[in-house]
Amino acid sequence: MRRRLGPGAARGRRALGAVAAAAVWLAQLGAVAAAPAAAPAAAPVNARAAGARVAVWPQDPGDDVTGVDAAVRGAGFQLVSMDRVRERLRALGDREAAAEAAALDALQAALAAARESYLRQDFAAMAAGLEQAEAAALPVLAQPRHAAVLWELELQRGLAALRQGQLDAARARFSFALALDAARAPRRDLYGPEVTRTFAELADARAQIPPRPTPLRIEPRDARVAIDGLPVIDNAAPRALRPGLHAIAVAAPGYRAHAAIVEVRSGAPIEVALAPAAGAAGSAGAAGSAEAAGSTGSAGDAVERLGGAWAQGAVDAGTESGRRAIAAVLAELGAAAAVVIDVDRARGEASARVIAIGAPDRGGAGRAAPESSAAVRRPAAAAAAAAALALLAADGTLRRDAADNGLTTGGLASGDRRGRETGRGSILRSWWLWTAVGGVAIAITAGFAIDTARDRTIRILPPAP
Q1: What is the rounded distance in angstroms from the CA atom of residue 215 to the CA atom of residue 230?
Q2: Which of 6, 77, 86, 201 could cross-link with 51 by S-S, CB 3.0 to 4.6 Å?
Q3: Could you give the CA distance from residue 126 to residue 106 in angstroms, rounded to a whole number?
Q4: How are beta strands 216-219 and 270-273 bridged, if at all?
Q5: Which of 429, 434, 407, 408 is nearest to 417 (CA)?
């Protein structure tokens, strides 16, 4: 028997039904409204926002960076291509090599003209021609690889002075030749007894004068310095030199190279302050103002300032000047950082370090000094890059805990390629060691036919006695 509900109960049931219907309607409305917000949840679980723009910078043009691009992307960073910059840097290196070859050709012509002047007994013309040739070719001749050529040129200048009766000038040039190579002497059968006797007497007198400490005051402090054809390992340490003429060559990335013949006096320092390369005044500031250019993927002034240094393997990320030069190019490319790869073929390993170009100054006039991590060594370049990139934050700055891994903001970072620091770097990798070895080999085998770069030969023909 069906039970009848009273009026109050019926109204209650109808009210409950209305509430339930409203609840269903509200749930449907909420689902529609929430649908757009729920869409991102359908994205792949491993998707993430791209990090800072990072470039791959080979320390040397021949360094194999296979797999490093993938390591940059795998670390969550955006890869900045260096292809266009790399080709320009190589072209600048080729241009400097061609200029060096032209200077050596001009020197060869000057030496041939000096011989003709000697045969005519026009010793004044011989001396003037050699002096001009020296001034024109000195930036090339002051380099360690051409020290043997400079020795021969100074011998010829001494000979010209001796034939003019200028004994002091002849002794000065012969002494300069001895500073370049104390073990080398003119051949008696080629130059005659007078020249060989004067040279030998000067060598004996010079040996009685002990070399004395000569302070070096070089700016920038991490510049590469060579004196008398030998690389200087520590610019802060005095150099043992005898009084007299000496050749000095100074170079640093982003600066105009300097070469000169200086007269050293006992106790007096050698002072050289390099000028910034053309357009390089305030290179860090130029980097800071170049972000707009970097957004288009082009690099301009910074590449020109770097010149052929990169093609020569002379842009050392372990030095402050090298880091600044690299950072200036990175800023013009719109990159926030770079991973620098240095491949050691002899040891079968690679090292990597990250360079952050620095945040803009508050005034907007430039950037803070670039920061660099210490070098991380691994058997392969990709593995070294991955380990170094772990020290880089997503915004392209060095992580603060990178300080525990050798973070440096100035001076020489760990792993400086010049071998100033010990660590795991092998002395056999030092450019100065092999340059010195090469210079000795050239001096021993050169005689009067000196092989120069690119299989070019300068034939220095001594005047007849």
Answers
A1: 16
A2: 77
A3: 15
A4: parallel
A5: 429
Note whether 415 and 375 are within 8 A (CB).
yes
Q: How many CB atoms lie within 10 A of CB 281?
A: 11
- At 338-373, the pLDDT tens digits run 999 999 999 999 999 999 987 555 444 455 688 999
83: exposed, middle or buried (Cβ count in 10 Å: 0-12, 13-18, 19+): exposed
- Give Rg (Cα) of the chain: 34
Say how far residue 440 (Cα) sits from the centre of its chain: 25
Find out whether 344 and 429 touch, Cβ atoms under 8 Å: yes
Report in angstroms the alpha-carbon separations of 441 from 150, 181, 183. Answer: 15, 12, 12
pTM: 0.72
Alpha carbons within 13 A on the beta-carbon side of 218: 29
Query: Could you give the CA distance from residue 435 to residue 441 in angstroms, rounded to a whole number?
Result: 10
Structure confidence by residue, pLDDT tens digits, 416-433: 444 433 333 333 344 444
| pLDDT tens readout for residues 117-139 | 999 999 999 999 999 999 999 99
Residue count (the chain): 465
First to last CA, the chain: 148
* Distance of alpha carbon 370 from alpha carbon 454, whole angstroms: 36
Question: What is the token pair recorded at 187?
Answer: 């051949």
The phi and psi torsions of 111 (rounded to 5 degrees) equal -70, -35
